[in-house]
Structures are given as structure tokens and as C-alpha cells.
Design brief:
MetI-like fold, BP-dep_ABC_trans_perm, transmembrane helix, mainly alpha, about 0% strand, transport
Length: about 280
């Protein structure tokens, strides 16, 4: 029989490593949130103990010189719109790859190219997209930034949705065809209800990536259409860095993604592991 002390030691080490990794992730976030409740002087002198105050949050949210609420609205518009476009295109694309009569190498090559595109840094595409958007009159418009975010996140969405669409029983689709269902009815009544967990997981991840994207938004937006990451960066000015206001706005920017992740974490785990357990 195994020695209980040896078993306890073997399980303690992985838990210790995971705990250290968790602290490495959580502590910077906690520090940034706490910095939003401090004064600039308290933060710069490095005081360990301070009296919390809401001055930075009031400055960010209610100051006449702050556009943060406008930026928040802009991020919601861009994030939700690009997410819906990604989900629609990725679901149709995944169904086409796995149900249409393509040669076997076509889906594999297409998905490999999608993942390769996803590895390109967004900043490498920002300049070309800015030139194209300005040429067609989409610079500083929601349409331009939404299309850019859709293009950035579509490869990931397509890869994830292909996992779920592939697992839909082919017999159900054949039965629907026998009953006279057209392709739109088949997709709406059969495929989409079965891939709802995949839609939830993909939608959450796509929205979070769109919400946090900075380089492309910086190039394609101006004051009226700037998103939250661009607004946070503007607190670092030429002659002053408003650390506490930056921390307060960063803390506020976490809320939508945090709520979505808490609601849909089980769908995300299922979406990321579905292909590995089959």
C-alpha cells in the first residue's frame, strides 16, 4: 500500500505550483484595482496602507473632460456586433467544411490557414487596414472597426465551431432532410440547438478578445469611436501619466468580460476540450 505521507507530498507539490501561478495572475489585477482607490501621491510614494477613495472613479466616469462612458458604449457596440458576425460566419463555415462534399484536404488546409492567420500580430495588419478603410470611407466608423475585429477573431471562432459542428450526429441531419427540411431550416432547427454550448463558448471568447483589442482600434478610431483600451492608453500623456485614473478605468473595463467568463466558464472549458476527449 502507498504511504499516505508520500501521496500527500506528491499532491501538495502540484497544488503549490498551481497556487503560485494563480497568485502571479491575480495579484497584478488586484494591485491595479486597488490603485484606482488611491491618490496619485500615495501610489507614487509606495504607501502600503492608504485610505480608499473614489476620486479617480468619479474623475473617469463623471468628469466633463472624460469620454470614458462613451468609450464604454463604443466597446459594447463593437464587441457585440463583431461577435454576432463571427458566430454567424463561423457556424456556416464550419457546417460547410464538415457537411459539404469538399475533398478531404480542403477542410484541413482551410483550418490550418485560419490558425496561421490567427497567429499574425494585429499590429502587423493595422496599417494595411487603416489604408483600406480610409480608401473606402470607413475610417473612424463603427463599420470599419467591427469588420476589422470580425476578421481578427473569425479564425478562432471557425476553429472552435468546427469542433462542435463535427460532433452533430449526421443521422439527425439526414432525418431532417427526409422530412423535407431545407438547409436554412436544418441549420436553425437541428444544428444550432445542438451546438449551443459551442456558440456560448465561442461568443464569450470572441467578445473578450474584441473588448481587449488595442492596436487595430487605435489605428481605426478617433475620439467619437474610440474603444475602452484606447481610452485607457490616453491617460498616459506627454508630460503626465495619470496612474490612478488609468487604474480606475482598467478596473471598470474588467467588469463585462468578468461577468461573461463567470457565467460561461463551463462552456469555455467544454469548447476548448471537446476535440481532445473524443
Amino acid at each position: 500500500m502507498s504511504d499516505p505521507h508520500m501521496v500527500g507530498a506528491r499532491t501538495a507539490v502540484p497544488h503549490l505550483v498551481l497556487g503560485v501561478c494563480g497568485l502571479a495572475v491575480v495579484l497584478p489585477v488586484v494591485w491595479a484595482i486597488a490603485a484606482g482607490f488611491r491618490t496619485q501621491i500615495s501610489l507614487l510614494v509606495g504607501e502600503l496602507w492608504f485610505t480608499p477613495n473614489l476620486a479617480s472613479f468619479n474623475e473617469v466616469l463623471f468628469s466633463k473632460t472624460s469620454d470614458f462612458l462613451l468609450n464604454y458604449r463604443n466597446s459594447l457596440i463593437v464587441g457585440l456586433s463583431s461577435t454576432l458576425l463571427c458566430l454567424a460566419a463561423a457556424t456556416l463555415g464550419a457546417w460547410s467544411l464538415h457537411r459539404m462534399r469538399w475533398p478531404r484536404w480542403v477542410p484541413a488546409l482551410f483550418l490550418a490557414w485560419a490558425m496561421a492567420f490567427n497567429m499574425i500580430p494585429p499590429v502587423a495588419l493595422a496599417g494595411a487596414w487603416f489604408t483600406m478603410a480610409r480608401t473606402v470611407g470607413l475610417d473612424n466608423t463603427f463599420a470599419g472597426i467591427i469588420l476589422a475585429h470580425t476578421a481578427l477573431n473569425l479564425p478562432m471562432a471557425l476553429f472552435l465551431m468546427s469542433v462542435f459542428v463535427r460532433e452533430v450526429p449526421l443521422e439527425l441531419e439526414e432525418a431532417a432532410r427526409i422530412d423535407g427540411a431545407s438547409t436554412p431550416v436544418l441549420l436553425w432547427k437541428v444544428v444550432i440547438p445542438l451546438v449551443t454550448p459551442g456558440l456560448a463558448a465561442t461568443g464569450i471568447l470572441t467578445f473578450v478578445f474584441s473588448w481587449n483589442e488595442f492596436a487595430v482600434a487605435l489605428n481605426l478610431t478617433m475620439k467619437q469611436t474610440a474603444t475602452v483600451p484606447v481610452a485607457i492608453a490616453k491617460f498616459a500623456q506627454d508630460f503626465e501619466i495619470q496612474y490612478t485614473q488609468m487604474a480606475a478605468s482598467a478596473a471598470l473595463s474588467i467588469l463585462p468580460a468578468l461577468v461573461l467568463l463567470l457565467i460561461g466558464q463551463r462552456y469555455i472549458v467544454k469548447g476548448l476540450t471537446q476535440g481532445a476527449i473524443k
